[in-house]
């Protein structure tokens, strides 16, 4: 029956979810039909072999490694504006050297973007999303200097260690290496190429829409978007996802004022006897938002609008659950003894995929050091976020929370909205994903494909604004994004199943050919 | 009628307080009879003049200032163990130089105490409590180096600027200067003297009881305890108090465990969909402790045992309220727009004096920096304190909070008890206080006497353990305890009404004579 998906007709069809209410209040719970797991055998393994190109990659591997090092040795820390302009220019120069007809900086209200276009006279056009910025570093925490990009020995094999090695310069430059080898051997690519690169991904992509603005008419003509990424485990397992949740991120701040409390500064703690406390006010306001277990929001309309599991999503989740429990690794890593409501694997996955969350990322007020200090703080702040499934608009979501606080008498509590964007979803039936999966099977066996991860990324810009299928994809293994000692595996050890740089590039070669249909 | 207090019979008599319940739950509210304000005219101004001793002080003032500087130039930071032993030895040496029969270090499990005894063959014995330690410093924040103890010009006159200038080396050494002048002129003091000094006051006096242990039999024979202190405002107003609230200080920590949540470390915030949050758990547990306005505790028995206003206390509060509203300065300094329940001055004073508080001194969990970081923290901590009126035992108080958390299913939340001691109260009718008030009227006019401040100090050690009247007392002005640029006024400007060093010392001279009855 699942083969009817091949027609693409049911991919986004709404089904009537089977849902019950968690506890006395309304957190919807979805269950799925396990009878129709997605049939990965229906996807043929990509069978063509581009031997001349593969040989060019193998023969030029030292130069390809040097390309990664050249990118990685150029710092580009967006938060500190370190090396940003030089890095952006390096992309422009590389695009020009590859023969792009268009390669230019794109001014924004923040760090510049980069636009590249390579017309191959092909029928299909691939859009590539890139980020050229990286997270800050504390060099003293690194085994090898973060911008030295040295090759070092690691449990998984020979790796390149640098800030940006895997997030995201390494796989992105590997993708360009692959294209260079195609161009060197064949003279042209089998697809036209549009690249948009931004220098503010680590800042939440505040000005990426301005880059899209400038090229929107042309981007709308593309056939799909790829974000080059090392997606294998050290053992070689490939875990893919076709969607992300949206996010709303805000701060709530209680501060002394006309309702009570000290206004200008903290006061001696003994005055609590006659003075209201902004900390208690924040705590009582926060407590009013959830059920006593902190897991179900009491905000009216909080769970309205969720688009429940489609047949396609049900089939992917069923296949995934039959294959393995993706949450069991988490359970081990974080010594988790109990999931919410003692949920089993299916309920866990459904909550992660379909439940809007109400999370406190941080809270602070008053004295937070060691020992005893007695003050009545004049301000208290909570940092909060909601991960939003398909169907919930992030601004409307925050409006509901604001309205609920107001209705409960907390209109003095300030809500500062820091970030928001909606969910994004791509269908497994799109040619982009089918091409990637066929190549995936060649290099990594049958992948695990999650319809949507619990985390967020602003992929709505592709799926909603440009109506393009989009996925992060690539062979290879990396680790340490946002941490010291970030690495990308270049030459796997004998017992490591993940691809090395040569196979990563060969898979990218195969992918553009698979997408082209040639 | 208030003169019946002269008999001391009603001083600690319980009265039936007129109390109502705040809101729907039980915060008792006390009101008082304003008809019998304390009659300060009943206290005669101290009329003796010890001219020869006063002249000795005036003639030796430069040497007396040097004594303060000698103490202040010796750092004695208890938290960092800087200069502690040298400072303790300086006290021993000074006591010996003054002719004390006993002067010795007192080993404790922490910093050493100092014991001094000077037998004058007198009928009465004065106990003096001293602290020789000081708070840490950030020298770069100081206008004059914190251990230079320079004389500098200030709005109030010539001041000595140093860590410990007013808290508490300055007034303590001034007290010893006064005694040296008596000894120089008269050859002996009119009272016997017992001094206990500790080097851990700024750490919460954890080992002071060990000092008392060693001399308890002898301390029990004293007639009262004084803590030398600069208690005037720059204008010269003298604000005294005869008691302090007790305190219980603890931390509550929620941490992932068998109830749920990540156990070993923070986890990606998106997993909130399937995982409990220790931050929400702490917030819901905290919220369960109070009424929605955060001002009334719901813990059973929280308000039981309060010893309401005695007749003496009512008379002191009535006099104080008729004279001025001591909370109005606070209202201005902290821009307070509203007191709890829109309380007027009387209710404010009654809450500050008689209500046990439930205050959050600080709270922290997760990410507390700028901008967006999305984590589900594995731990959350609140730092809390209760200021406890006479009648509430701090350990029993914390037991009740613990039991309430347990009864509400929060037995996993850790309660770390950091500090506790009960309230202390001395009667205005005691000879110690009457002596101090008579001298106060000579130097500063009629003082304002608060029966008890809202803050805490471990004075129970004197009032409960040794059954001695105790009060902090002295002329003079100081500022900046626990802050940069701590000062003690030495030579007042023409328009400053506060006493300078010479008058501070003369008042201490008068006080010991007044207490002796000679």
Main attributes of the structure:
homodimer, 518 residues, alpha+beta, Aminopeptidase, Alpha-Beta Plaits, six-stranded mixed sheet, 30% helix, 23% strand, globular, disordered N terminus, Peptidase_M20_dimer (chains A, B), signal (chains A, B), Cyt/Met_Dipeptidase (chains A, B), metal-binding (chains A, B), M20/M25/M40 family metallo-hydrolase (chains A, B)
Question: How do the strands and helices of this protein lay out in sequence?
Answer:
The structure is a homodimer of 518-residue chains.
Chain A: E1 18-22, E2 27-31, H1 51-59, H2 61-73, H3 84-97, E3 102-106, E4 113-118, E5 125-131, E6 150-154, E7 157-161, H4 169-186, E8 192-198, H5 208-219, E9 224-228, E10 239-241, E11 243-255, E12 267-268, H6 278-287, H7 311-323, H8 328-333, H9 345-354, E13 359-366, E14 375-376, E15 379-388, H10 394-407, E16 414-421, E17 424-425, H11 431-444, E18 448-450, E19 453-456, H12 460-465, E20 470-473, E21 478-479, E22 487-492, H13 501-516
Helix pairs in contact in A: 1-4, 1-13, 2-4, 4-13, 11-13
Organism (chains A, B): Congregibacter variabilis
Keywords (chains A, B): Hydrolase, Metal-binding, Protease, Signal
Signal peptide (chains A, B): 1-22
């Amino acid at each position: 029956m699942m083969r009817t998906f091949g027609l693409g007709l049911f991919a986004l069809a709404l089904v009537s979810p089977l849902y019950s209410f968690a506890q006395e209040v309304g957190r919807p719970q979805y269950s799925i039909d396990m009878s129709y797991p997605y049939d990965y055998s229906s996807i043929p393994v990509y069978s063509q072999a581009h031997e001349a190109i593969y040989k060019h990659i193998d023969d030029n591997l030292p130069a390809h490694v040097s390309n990664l090092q050249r990118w990685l040795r150029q710092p580009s820390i967006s938060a500190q504006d370190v090396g940003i302009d030089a890095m952006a220019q390096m992309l422009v120069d590389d695009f020009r050297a590859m023969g792009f007809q268009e390669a230019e900086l794109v001014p924004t209200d923040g760090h510049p973007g980069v636009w590249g276009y390579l017309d191959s006279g092909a029928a299909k056009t691939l859009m590539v999303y890139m980020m050229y910025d990286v997270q800050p570093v504390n060099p003293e925490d690194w085994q090898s200097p973060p911008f030295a990009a040295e090759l070092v020995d690691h449990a998984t094999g020979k790796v390149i260690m640098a800030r940006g090695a895997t997030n995201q310069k390494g796989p992105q430059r590997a993708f360009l290496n692959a294209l260079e080898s195609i161009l060197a051997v064949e003279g042209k690519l089998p697809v036209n190429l549009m690249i948009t690169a931004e220098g503010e991904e680590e800042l939440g992509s505040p000005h990426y829409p301005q880059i899209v603005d400038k090229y929107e008419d042309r981007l709308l003509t593309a056939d799909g978007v790829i974000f080059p990424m090392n997606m294998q485990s050290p053992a070689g397992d490939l875990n893919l996802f076709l969607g992300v949740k949206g996010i709303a991120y805000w701060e709530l701040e209680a501060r002394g004022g006309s309702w009570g409390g000290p206004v200008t500064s903290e006061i001696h703690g003994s005055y609590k006897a006659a003075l209201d406390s902004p900390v208690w006010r924040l705590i009582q306001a926060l407590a009013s938002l959830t059920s006593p277990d902190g897991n179900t929001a009491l905000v009216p309309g909080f769970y309205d609008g969720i688009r429940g599991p489609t047949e396609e999503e049900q089939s992917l989740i069923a296949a995934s659950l039959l294959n393995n429990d993706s949450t069991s690794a988490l359970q081990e890593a974080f010594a988790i003894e109990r999931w919410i409501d003692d949920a089993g694997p299916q309920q866990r996955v459904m909550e992660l995929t379909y439940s809007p969350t109400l999370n406190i990322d941080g809270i602070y007020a008053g004295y937070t050091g060691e020992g005893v200090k007695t003050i009545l703080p004049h301000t208290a702040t909570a940092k909060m976020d909601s991960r939003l499934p398909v169907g919930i608009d992030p601004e409307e979501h925050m409006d509901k929370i604001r309205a609920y606080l107001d209705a409960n008498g907390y209109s003095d509590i300030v809500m500062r909205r820091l970030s928001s964007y909606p969910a994004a979803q791509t269908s497994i039936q799109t040619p982009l994903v089918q091409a990637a999966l066929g190549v995936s099977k060649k290099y990594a066996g049958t992948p695990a494909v999650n319809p949507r991860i619990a985390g967020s990324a602003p992929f709505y810009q592709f799926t909603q604004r440009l109506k393009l299928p989009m996925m992060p994809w690539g062979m290879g293994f990396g680790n340490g994004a946002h941490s010291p000692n970030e690495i990308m595996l270049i030459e796997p050890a004998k017992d490591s199943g993940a691809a090395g740089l040569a196979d990563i590039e060969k898979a990218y070669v195969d992918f553009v050919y698979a997408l082209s249909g040639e």
